[in-house]
Design goal:
- There is one protein chain.
- The protein has 1 helix and 15 strands, in the order αβββββββββββββββ.
- By secondary structure, it is mainly β.
- It has a single domain, classed as Jelly Rolls, CATH 2.60.120.10.
- Strand 5 and strand 6 form a beta hairpin.
- The longest helix has 20 residues.
- The radius of gyration is 20 Å and the shape is globular.
Length: about 170
């Protein structure tokens, strides 16, 4: 009986220890709102050669497009200390097209060893959009002003479109 109890305690301790090491970072100071979610049958859309837009998209299986708005507070609290509001580190099952509609946001990619910031501002800035490839990222409002974005997320039909991930360790924050 004593050996079983010790074994159970060792398992529980291991699970808790692994949970602490791989703990995901949740959003902080960001309010997400799903505006729409639609299921599309398989398709292949390609513009003609004389079109003003060169575009080619193909879905081999049905997929969902999720339109989501994020409102970022001017700042948030991290352990009682002021910090930038952020989405937390996360990834999506497919690409995400993000348009900043108010303020300025900074994106960091989980697989970028140099933690290069991608600063994106609302119109009339030329750089007012960001494309995420699904490998993981974080969006932070480092401006100290309110910010908003609208995202179009490609996802599997009726399945989650976001998974929180542990901070990758490539960024100092």
């Amino acid at each position: 009986m004593k050996m079983r109890l010790l074994g159970l305690l060792a398992i529980v301790g291991t699970v808790i220890g692994v949970g602490v090491v791989t703990r995901a970072e949740p959003a902080n100071g960001v309010t997400p709102t799903v505006l729409a979610r639609g299921t599309y049958p398989r398709f292949h859309v390609k513009t003609s050669a004389d079109s003003l837009v060169d575009f080619d998209a193909k879905a081999k299986e049905p997929l969902d497009l999720v339109v989501r708005q994020h409102q970022y507070a001017a700042s948030a609290l991290c352990g009682g200390i002021p910090c930038p509001s952020s989405t937390g580190w996360h990834q999506h099952p497919g690409p995400v097209f993000i348009t900043v509609t108010q303020g300025t946001l900074t994106f960091y990619e989980a697989d970028d060893p140099s933690c290069t910031p991608h600063v994106v501002s609302a119109l009339p800035s030329f750089e007012h959009a960001y494309v995420d490839d699904g490998h993981g990222h974080i969006a932070r409002n480092e401006s100290g002003q309110v910010a908003t974005d609208v995202s179009v997320i490609v996802a599997p039909v009726n399945l989650p479109f976001r998974t929180d991930i542990a901070p990758p360790g490539n960024c100092a924050f």
